[in-house]
């Protein structure tokens, strides 16, 4: 019965906010590294990916895997590349605009958790290039730098945020149930 009351109290509590002065805009009190990365660096990099996936498809495909790049690019591949570009655009908009629109920590964590799943999926997609793609720095080209270490960085930033690193959020102590 007590745990039901505690659950109801938590459900009725107001959403946690990112610590900020009352006059601050969403995200103003976040550590600088989070603001610069989530509001600027990563959205711009996603826009660059969108540009190449839509407007420079042969370059994008060649940098991904030169030996299998079809020339001319088949219509189905062109459509799929433009859809990929659209997803990069969606990623950039979500991060740059949705996160700016709220200081609700639950919204931030939900969005960043979803993007973390995307990071893991993105890393999984290059597995067909062989396991060394994940650590062979000397063999990376421009697109590999975006697909591997930059995605590692994004995932690390999201994991740090989800773990409240640098947020000044105090974790609630949970009581263990005794049998």
TrEMBL record:
Matching InterPro entries: DUF7704 (IPR056121)
UniProt entry keywords in alphabetical sequence: Membrane, Transmembrane, Transmembrane helix
Boundaries of every DUF7704 domain copy: 29-165
Region (Disordered): 1-24
A Pfam family recorded for this sequence: DUF7704
Membrane-spanning parts: 32-53, 73-93, 105-125, 145-167
Biased composition (Low complexity): 11-24
Protein's recorded name: DUF7704 domain-containing protein
Domain of life of the native organism: Eukaryota
